[in-house]
Design goal:
This protein starts with a helix and ends with a helix. By secondary structure, it is mostly helical. The chain has helices at 2-36, 55-58, 61-69, 71-76, 80-88, 102-116.
């Protein structure tokens, strides 16, 4: 009886975890397609901005969150990598997304991670 109860609890936890993961993935995908895809690809080369495949391997999550919320603030802070992107992309200014929460940006990062290896 205890084994069946434990098995049922584990199954429920796995289902809930899968649902939460799928929901986050879906939110990240939707946000990426609505906001980011006009300028960025994942593994298909550069557009207006850089290809974001494996961006999470090159940059910290904290850096990405700051840059998405205000790219110009990061550039003006003296960040050499941010400035190199600004220079490499002909001074194109990435639109700030100050209303995005950290969790929304993390969901986009998760979507990019999954699709970088696809």
């Amino acid at each position: 009886m205890k084994l069946h109860l434990c098995s049922a609890i584990v199954t429920v936890i796995l289902i809930i975890t899968s649902f939460i993961s799928a929901s986050s993935q879906n939110i990240g995908e939707t946000t990426f397609k609505q906001v980011c895809a006009a300028c960025h690809t994942i593994g298909k080369g550069r557009l207006v901005g850089p290809d974001l495949a494996n961006a999470d391997q090159r940059l910290s999550e904290e850096w990405i969150i700051k840059f998405v919320k205000s790219s110009q603030s990061v550039i003006q802070s003296g960040d050499k990598y941010a400035d190199s992107l600004f220079q490499a992309y002909n001074h194109a200014i990435m639109p700030d997304q100050p209303t995005f929460t950290d969790d929304q940006i993390k969901e986009i990062i998760a979507y990019i991670q999954v699709n970088s290896s696809a």
